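User: Reviewer 2 asked us to show a designed sequence for the structure in our supplementary figure. I'm pasting the structure tokens here. Could you produce the per-position amino acids so we can include them in the response letter?
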């Protein structure tokens, strides 16, 4: 896979040379090129931003350097394959594991890292007439620029490429992996020692009984997902759930109902704030 990144902070992308990605680059699985947007500015100040039309705070990235950069980077790449332009932006569609899987199947990604209030909207609009453009957000928060989001997306995508991870199977159990664990968070994992200061690894994981282990892992995934991401449980396709899945989910619902009932009882037994005396007499233990 070829990856081009255009940024005003090329040094920010240094992590792309480290760890699994660095090794994948050395082995030729990944061909990464980082470009300084300012190389395509035409003035002495190497200006990349200007004030927004319509007023408002912040600055907007000028279209000309971006268009020159995108044109040059596209022309310098292979002419046998088409690039996909990825624009990390908090206003984009939410990036998910499904996107990671889809992007991992593409031959060439160009990342355009915006800063300030983002790129002039005519850049993606014009690019869309030539190549696929994906505006992606990595979450509901605002970063200072697209560089950190690019690192996140590149790592999520490239670890799925054949030959990047040491163990290809380890991606199939991932949280959000497409397949048996689709829509579920991965449960807890353990390694040796089996007994660590009295904290013991669940017996089933030491049993060698693989069907029982698979079932236990799925139970744990359902429990963790219900606790941390109830929205994902609500989105599960009932056709993907077997009898035991339904049993686990019913147990969790029952526990929720019990907790709710306890809270309601506590509410009934505890006087409301407004029923309490606003000026209670000082208690002997706290008075000076
Ligand atoms: N740039 C700034 N915030 C971002 C976000 N949440 N996702 C992607 N790119 C961004």
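Assistant: Here is a per-position design you can include in the supplement:
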């Amino acid at each position: 896979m070829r990856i081009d990144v255009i940024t005003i902070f090329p040094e920010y992308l240094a992590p792309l040379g480290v760890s699994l990605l660095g090794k994948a680059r050395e082995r030729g699985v990944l061909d990464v090129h980082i470009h300084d947007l300012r190389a395509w500015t035409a003035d002495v100040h190497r200006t990349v931003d200007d004030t927004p039309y319509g007023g408002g705070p912040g600055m907007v990235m000028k279209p000309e350097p971006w268009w020159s950069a995108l044109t040059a980077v596209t022309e310098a790449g292979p002419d046998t394959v088409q690039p996909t332009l990825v624009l990390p932006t908090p206003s984009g569609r939410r990036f998910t594991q499904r996107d990671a899987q889809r992007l991992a199947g593409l031959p060439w990604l160009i990342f355009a890292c915006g800063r300030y209030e983002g790129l002039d909207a005519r850049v993606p609009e014009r690019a869309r007439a030539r190549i696929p453009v994906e505006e992606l957000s990595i979450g509901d928060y605002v970063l200072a620029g697209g560089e950190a989001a690019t690192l996140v997306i590149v790592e999520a995508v490239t670890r799925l490429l054949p030959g990047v991870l040491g163990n290809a199977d380890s991606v199939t159990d991932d949280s959000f992996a497409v397949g048996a664990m689709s829509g579920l968070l991965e449960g807890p994992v353990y390694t040796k020692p089996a007994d660590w200061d009295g904290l013991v690894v669940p017996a089933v994981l030491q049993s060698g009984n693989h069907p029982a282990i698979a079932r236990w892992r799925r139970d744990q995934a359902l429990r963790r997902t219900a606790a941390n991401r109830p929205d994902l449980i609500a989105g599960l396709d009932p056709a993907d759930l077997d009898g035991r899945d339904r049993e686990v989910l019913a147990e969790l619902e029952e526990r929720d109902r019990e907790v709710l009932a306890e809270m309601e009882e506590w509410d009934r037994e505890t006087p409301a704030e407004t029923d309490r005396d606003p000026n209670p007499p000082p208690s002997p233990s706290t008075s000076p």
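For the response letter, you might also mention the following. Residues 195 and 225 are 27 Å apart (CA to CA). The chain has a mean pLDDT of 93.
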